[in-house]
Amino acid sequence: MPKILFSQFANIELIVEGGNPRGGAAVQTLVWMHAFNKLGFDIQQVIYETETRPKKKEFDWVETITVYNPNVKRIRSWYTYKLPAYFKTLKTAKCDYVYSSIPKWYFFYINIFCKILGIKHIIRIPSDEMVDKRIFLTESKIDNFYIQKSFATADLILAQNEYQFVNLKRKFPKQQIVKIYNPTIINEEFLKIKTELQGHIAWIANFRHRKNMALLLKIAELLPKENFMIAGVPLLPLDEETEDSVENLRKLKNVTFLGNVGREDILGFLSKAKFLLSTARYEGFSNTFLEAMCTGTPVLTTHTANPDELINRYELGYVYENENEICSIIENLTMEKYLTWSKNCIAYVKENHDYKYLGNKLMNQIKCL
Q1: Which of 74, 127, 76, 83 is nearest to 107 (CA)?
Q2: Contact 107/147 with Cβ under 8 angstroms?
Q3: Where are the domains of the chain?
Q4: PANTHER family per the record (predicted)?
């Protein structure tokens, strides 16, 4: 059977007992793992030498592959220790493919290793800022230089939406680049159209600047009769705006902080929600949107977090410009319109995002590499 190695260390947090909360890239990657496992691939996941936590029983099909000890201190440790360890790992793992979900500067070297060993390297773009000038918000100039080199030499790049695809194709016209939406595992137990316009307004994300909790605060203040439930934890260190917003949100009587909601509980949480609210400044393709749709829960999102305009194009909820507009929509929404949104969510996610369907689509693509 073909082997695929998942290279992001953070993925393990969703696989082991007592794992720490992770962002959307790890959540999305876990679904791809499930998809490839269903398609008959052997699944490998990198870990640090210091990893001792046991895997959850439901992930006994994931083989963990030790790479290096992150605590080892050496002069120029990436070149004298970590990268050589990575090469050795790829050689002994005998994988056919490497899947990487968050581009890093050293992927340029991973590409070289893969070409030497006859392995195909697939890089997934996690968010829109990775393909435009916003990359400098998180990456240095030298890191960005090597990330661009890694894009130019990867065997396949996976874009989440049209914006990513167009920008990448403009920069790398000869590269193999494919747009493929995020997959999700559809649970028939929760795949139900809403029957009533009631429940809480769910907000799900780890707390950081790009999620715009300042806007969430404004909306919650304008809708004191609505119950807002916030699922997530701070990503430290917090920026000042997010820290102030969280502090003020905690003072509101209509806001409840739930902390981290586990993967096994997320659909139940969303099924009881009236809406999923996004206040994000930008998104690549939100896994949480798909999870909400899997429960028939409409999505309310900003115009900057509406990949390929899917929310308004398929009538899966509402795309708003500011806090006043969304408050007006919530207060004046008819039952008929709400049920239409809910029905559309179910139909759309079943037709376009089933993990086995998209897994087959991606498998057929990588077989051609």
Answers
A1: 83
A2: yes
A3: 3-183+354-366, 200-352
A4: GLYCOSYLTRANSFERASE WBBK-RELATED
At residue 31's C-alpha, the angle toward residues 294 and 184, to 5°, is 20
For the chain, give the number of residues: 369
Fold observed for domain 3-183+354-366: Rossmann fold (3.40.50)
Percentage of the chain beyond pLDDT 90 is: 89
What is the CATH architecture assignment of 200-352?
A: 3-Layer(aba) Sandwich (3.40)
Per CATH, 3-183+354-366 and 200-352 having the same topology is answered yes
Using DSSP, state whether 118 is helix, strand or coil. Answer: coil
**Res. 21: pLDDT tops 80:** no
Q: Does residue 236 surpass a pLDDT of 90?
A: no
Reply yes or no on whether the pLDDT at 30 is more than 90: yes
Residue 293, token pair as written in the block: 């749709």
Q: Are 293 and 346 a contacting pair, CB within 8 Å?
A: yes
What tens digit of pLDDT does each residue of 311-368 get? 999 999 999 999 999 999 999 999 999 999 999 999 999 999 999 999 999 999 998 8
> Which whole number is the average pLDDT over 143-159?
97
Q: Provide the phi-psi class of 156: left if phi over 0, else alpha when psi is between -120 and 50, else beta.
A: beta
CA atoms of 367 and 369, how far apart (whole Å): 6
Predicted TM-score (pTM) of the model is 0.91
Any alpha helices (H) in the chain, and if so which ranges?
24-38, 77, 83-93, 107-117, 141-153, 162-171, 213-222, 240-249, 266-271, 287-293, 310-313, 323-332, 335-352, 355-366
